[in-house]
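Methods: example folding runs. The two proteins below were folded one after another, and each record is reproduced exactly as written to the output file, sequence line first and structure-token line second.
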Amino acid sequence: MLIISRKFRPVNPILILLMVSVLLLPNCGFRLNRNQITLPENAQSISLQNIENRSFTPRLDILLKDFLINRFSRNAVKIQPAQLADLSLTIQIDSANYVRQDYALDNTTISYEFLFTIAAKLTVTHNDKNTDLIKNQPLSGIYSIKTESTDLSQTEIADGRVSALENLGDQVIQKLTQNF
């Protein structure tokens, strides 16, 4: 008679609990919401018609609207006219500028930091309740470029403004997804 013996090693109970949790959590409706946009007040749609550019830099309103439409669309948020939307966004771009400042000085090189800032105000209105969820909230989009050059090219300036504007768009989305 041939006897085969199998040795069992004890399994860590935490590992078993973790495996069971991973299997059960998706079935109970739990999901990670790391990059998904969830609008306040259970809203399903948003209007982006009121983006006003009061800065002296042209097209910032158009670029911001395009950025927000792209981000909302990727996250299945419906963008509709104000009459049909649950929420309306009003964004007023007040200023767009950049400044150069000394970044690092050592014996061999001088470096500079160019800091781009776009300042705006955000108002979010719940259309059904005709109430402001956020009223004239100041926001700033910021981006910096570090270089040894004393000036930036037109391309670098345009790229810096776009990056600051995208940061502003991220700030708008962050304000929308905070718990009210």
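Second run, written to the same file directly after the first:
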Amino acid sequence: MDSKLHILKLKIQMYSKLGKIGRLASKIKISSKGNTVKNILVCFPIDEPSFRVASYSFRKLKEDVLKDVHIILLIPSQYKNLIKFYFGQIITYDMKNEKNISSTLEEIRKIINDFTFDMIIDLNPNFSFPISHFISNIPANYKVGFQSVFSDTFYNIQFELSTTGFLERGYNQINSLITSK
């Protein structure tokens, strides 16, 4: 096993035992009376190619989601000029290195602490411990992300990216989960 992967597994186990990784909602309740999701946090990818695909795939998100849903977009600051849509509340963060990302995300958590999120969506196609750890410490009924070796610890709704498929298909699956159409 790759030593970095082994170290990451140990780190996640330690954080879990120490209570530094939040608990997932054990049951998912879907109401027959309609949409119960009112506040959504969307964490955009930290790598530029994935960010560009996600930005394109979610450009019409507000048009497709019910009008009474509040959306907060968490976007790496270096991609702010690549945004081609203007809806929801946009929060940018600087990510120089993994240590900075953790402290910066902690500051963001203080900003968004006033919100009660029904759903948090991680659009990173590759596992990112700082982002997943950040998400794990924000209470939400639904935590959505892509399948990985560690995704069971962090997400209660997971989408699989096929190795031969396109990233946009994965984003379309997530989009269909939250859209009203």
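Comment on the second run: The first strand starts at residue 39 and ends at 43.
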